[in-house]
């Protein structure tokens, strides 16, 4: 039962929502809920609060995207591999050798896949340099050395960025030092030779993943080893490991106007979530659902490989079909496209599994069938609501095994056939 105090606060929230097109962001709403006394933070109270806003004509919107199963550890979604396939060697490099690689662009500092090279403040960078001046050893660096002239940083991006800015670019001025206060504001060129020599002769430990190590093994290593200030998303790791035509295709397709209209306002672009959604479209519509082996991440990794080898050749066809499918989904479902639906009309988050099954289901239709579905959109919406009320279907949405994956695909495919034949 809502107290008068809660109702008053919800009314204030509703008034704010009316000034913003009768909408309230879920983040704002849930912060109000989180501010309640612990005894009041129950599911019943939460539902009553949502109902209050709904009765006030306020739509609760969210920027979140559900995942297939939040309890699944991504590391466990890769096929077990033989430890003997891991080929990592340890080298001792002088700082001078590392700097020469950076100067000759033989260390890949491309942060397009958003590992955020600028996470560290100038004080943190300066204190790293001060550690070198104090002869304090740096933590080990990890590189994918598959390409001799283009090492990919697995762990150590922030440190290497700091070294580059100070020693190579000479843009970093030392600040916030704990011991060498006299060096405040100094650039590398102005350091006494004693200090520059000390930096150049510092030895660092570099672990290198050698050529021949399977990509899925490298993917697992990448996921486990990275200890930077920002944990990599699975798509960021893919972008790092499959650089080439695949990354270029995904980048181009995410700039598509239809994609931006239907998904863009709900999908995070700064962490490559938009790239992942395009990749999922290509996976289920082009790479093929029959190749899914129950391991979602491996399925998407294989799709990246497919794009690099052959998929890029049909980039224009993919773009055209994606525009058609997204436009069709919008015409049928409107703002409910790619979401679970219910009789309460509440707008739920975009769901990756629902997105995949509708992309696949609509992709298989010809022109006349698509027009028929648009004409019968109310019927298909009602039938999908009933499907979403089925515990069996919802269970397939949450699971990642091959059987559940194919069952949910078949459920929507069968629903479409029934509507077309109605």
Task: Please tell me about this protein's structure.
By secondary structure, the protein is an alpha/beta fold. It has three domains: 4-61, no CATH class; 87-212, no CATH class; 243-421, no CATH class. Helices cover 53% and strands 8% of the residues. It has 19 helices and nine strands. The protein has helices at 4-18, 26-34, 43-55, 95-103, 122-133, 157-168, 193-200, 215-225, 234-241, 245-254, 257-264, 273-288, 296-309, 315-333, 352-363, 367-375, 377-388, 391-398, 402-421, and strands at 23-25, 59-61, 65-66, 88-94, 107-108, 141-144, 151-155, 203-209, 350-351. The chain has a five-stranded mixed β-sheet. A two-stranded parallel ribbon has the order 1-2. A two-stranded parallel sheet has the order 3-9. It is globular and about 80 Å long. Residues 67-76 have low confidence and may be disordered.
Itemize the secondary structure elements and their pairings.
Layout: H1 4-18, E1 23-25, H2 26-34, H3 43-55, E2 59-61, E3 65-66, E4 88-94, H4 95-103, E5 107-108, H5 122-133, E6 141-144, E7 151-155, H6 157-168, H7 193-200, E8 203-209, H8 215-225, H9 234-241, H10 245-254, H11 257-264, H12 273-288, H13 296-309, H14 315-333, E9 350-351, H15 352-363, H16 367-375, H17 377-388, H18 391-398, H19 402-421
Parallel strand pairs: 1-2, 3-9, 5-7, 6-8
Antiparallel strand pairs: 4-8, 6-7
Helix pairs in contact: 5-6, 8-9, 10-12, 10-13, 11-14, 12-13, 12-15, 14-15, 15-19, 17-19, 18-19
